[in-house]
Amino acid sequence: MSGEVSRFPFFHETPAPEGAEGWESMYPYYLLPREETRDWEDSRLWFADTMHWSRGVHPFDSIGAEAVYLGAGQNSTRIFVLPTSLGLDVRVQNGYVYIAGIPVTDPAEIERRAALFQERAGHYYANWDELYARWKTKVTEAVARMKTISFPPLGELDPPEVVTEARGRSTSWDIITNYHRLIDEFFLVWQYHFEFLNLGYGGYIVFFQFCRQAFPQITEQEVARLVAGIDVLAFRPDDELRGLARLAVDLGLVGLLAGPGTADETFAALAGHENGPEWLQAYEAARDPWFDYFAEYGFTHDQDTWNSNPAIPLQGIARYAVRIQAGEDITRPVERLARERDEIVAEYRDLLSPAERTQFDELLGLARKVFPFIEEHNIYVEHWTHTVFWQKAWELGDFLVSAGFADARDDVFYLNRFELDQVLADIVQSWAIGVEIRGRKKWADVIARRRPIVAALQARTAPPAYGIPPEEVTDPFAVMNYGVTTDRIKEWLGASDGTASTLTGIPGGPGVAEGPVRVLRTEKDLALLRPGEILVAPITAPSWAAAFSSVSGVVTDIGGMMSHAAIVCREYGVPAVVGTGFATANLKTGQRVRVDGDTGTVTVLEDPR
Predict the structure, then answer these.
(1) PANTHER family per the record (predicted)?
(2) SS3 of 293, please?
(3) pTM for the full predicted model
(4) DSSP state of 296
């Protein structure tokens, strides 16, 4: 058809934003589109991973793109041998992270890999509870080891114990060793991350495919609701906020929490109230570990946790407390969801033959068994591990300042991990010899040049995709987490002009809602949200759950049936459409829209006057 768009732009067709020329020098070469790999890159579909990196990444922060997709590739391609998909290739383009699924299309190879997958994945499915318990231990031990890492300033001399204990080595070498340990632990945890994740998606996909074949009329939303209503660790931080809100009501502290003051002013006011100390004690008890929880996804150094910015949890507590005081029920509707789930299961199960029911029961049991990991792993990895990792990275920044290398503690993030290794070697060797740091001016010039480049990259939004769409998207991670399906890509190509009055996406949370739009770009805008509005965002983080309690619906640019936004909306009973591609570009604050979480459509009803 004349004028039909069949592909997205190629990497090499997209110039650097003004002021960001030379951005490529900031990242390891293998993360960049290159002339020698152009044919390969032009033949792929690369979609923006703005779910995890919502803005252009600093040089050091690109370590996440390496670790994440190394772990995904190893487990998909080499360990569990997914039949129809290899790993996800990764590139950084104009500062943003893009990924491409690598499908397996040869029937003979798919059959060979399927046999291997059945054997290897079958071992995990058969021993899921035991292996999952061991997984939790492995990750928590890695986090504990990471916490022991330190980067103390270098003194004039090594301490006397180096001599009296005949150590034979300088304590300065601990700086190098600990840096390597930090990097190694980070990569190790991300390999653990994918040990179970694709198996979790795989268990759900097999059940999903059975349902679509057995019940041709069943919707994506109905299949998802068959595994809803399962309590998981990922909801614990929000449960802590609800508990603190109830306590605030009981102690007569709602007015103080809902007041206009800063977090410090609120804490001071609470400390001066006769019931305040009791509430503050409960708040402190909840902080470790539940407030080691990023307001976003924890993939960049400049994101707040609830502990580092207490205004975030205080805002959520105040929202809940005001509603409780007004007589509202803020409990998550777990019992209702479970009841509805069981009713739907019974209705569909009655349509099957005895043999089919047996298979249905087995697959449903597996889907429910693996589901908790799909959400819970975020607590262990993206929140608890990343909290410690970024704390240690900031400590490295302090070390660079103490050594006389850097002027500001955030200078460290304008170096990639390999450059930082060189800098630390320079600092330690120069200290050992007793001379000035040899590369101070060199790197000061580099950092000064990169600051405006990063700012220019972050001032631009990421195009949703580059390259040529495949005939079929088969990677389970792309489908279930990101919502990048074959049909969705076709719709993105047709809806990218920003003029569509109807957007289509993936059914996230069931139900239909109408209301005025509130477009939010980051968690820092959550205070603008008003009750009854439709929250529209590039992606929502699990930590936004308190906001979900007051909205009438949710719409996101990216996300699949098993994305955190979709799972949270289902568990909170909020109508949602995820993976629309262009909601934040097409919709404007104040527009009235209808969100149909059953069919995955968003319809503009009227524009604001």
Answers:
(1) PHOSPHOENOLPYRUVATE SYNTHASE-RELATED (PTHR43615), PPDK_N DOMAIN-CONTAINING PROTEIN (PTHR43615:SF1)
(2) coil
(3) 0.92
(4) S
Name the residue range of residue 270's domain: 233-334
Asked, for residue 177, whether it belongs to a domain, the answer is: no
223-280, pLDDT tens digit by residue? 888 987 777 788 899 999 999 999 999 999 999 999 888 999 999 999 999 999 999 9
Q: Is residue 19 part of a domain?
A: no
Looking at this protein, which amino acid is placed at residue 538?
P
Residues 6 or more apart whose CB falls under 8 angstroms from that of 536 comprise 517, 518, 519, 520, 554, 555, 556, 583, 584, 587
CA–CA separation, 470 vs 104, rounded Å?
12
HEC-encoded secondary structure of 479-500:
HHHHCCCHHHHHHHHHHCCCCC
595, part of any domain: yes
The answer to whether residue 538 scores a pLDDT higher than 50 is yes
Q: Two tokens at 4?
A: 């039909």
Q: Tokens at residue 77, please?
A: 């391609």
Tokens of 496: 């990218």
Of 334, 350, 369, the position where a domain reaches its end is 334
Q: Write the DSSP assignment of 189-207 as a string of letters.
A: HHHHHHHHHHHHHHHHHHH
Q: What burial class does residue 153 get, using C-beta atoms within 10 Å of its C-beta: 0-12 exposed, 13-18 middle, 19+ buried?
A: exposed
Domain-ending residue, one of 300, 334, 368 = 334
Beta strand 592-596 pairing with 512-519:
antiparallel
Reference 574, options 521, 519, 515, 525; nearest CA is: 515
Q: Looking at 91-100, 122-131, 452-461, 569-578, which range is the least confident one? A: 569-578
CA distances from 125 to 45, 119, 135, 368, 519 (A): 32, 10, 14, 12, 41
Q: Give first-to-last CA distance, the chain, whole Å.
A: 37
CATH number at residue 544: 3.50.30.10
146, 183 Cβ separation under 8 angstroms = no
Is 220 within 8 Å of 561 (Cβ atoms)?
A: yes
Residues 82-100 pLDDT 10s? 998 888 999 999 999 999 9
**Cα–Cα distance, 557 to 555 (Å, whole number):** 7
Q: Give 425's Cβ-side CA count (13 Å radius).
A: 7
Residue 148 domain flag: no
pLDDT, tens digit, for every residue of 372-397? 888 788 899 999 999 999 999 999 99
What is the total count of domains within the chain? 2
The DSSP element (H or E) to which 85 belongs, if any, is strand 85-93
Distance from C-alpha of 34 to C-alpha of 559, rounded to nearest angstrom: 29
Per DSSP, the three-state class of 141 is helix
